[in-house]
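name: query_chain
kind: protein
chains: 1
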Amino acid sequence: PHLTAFMCFKAGMTHIVRDLDRPGSKVNKKEVVEAVTVLEAPPMVVVGITAYRETPVGLKALGTMWANHVSTEFRRRFYKNWKQSAQKAFTKRMSFAKKKAGKAANEAMLARFIKKGVVLRVIAHTQHKKLRSHTI
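structure:
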């Protein structure tokens, strides 16, 4: 198992000078200037897992399991206006996960994912605060 994608943002463009090694070309063994894109990849953290099972018509979700503690930075993304909202996203989930029944439900769901799940997908979010050029 491995992650097949990673979130990154286009930070800008620049140019490089490199030696071209293309036999038969007019510019073989000469320096050429090429445009390059600069990408910035902030650190990511996994906050949930969704498992899918195979059906004759395609994948069907078995369920989603969220992390016990999600950051405020992640919870902000569930609201159009964070300051005017009640800021209650995931609060009931976090309090339920601390109880004995919540831990048992997590274990049961994880066992179901292992037994029936064919495809596992993670729900992740980027941590912009850890970037050097943090402007949010």
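note: The mean pLDDT is 89.
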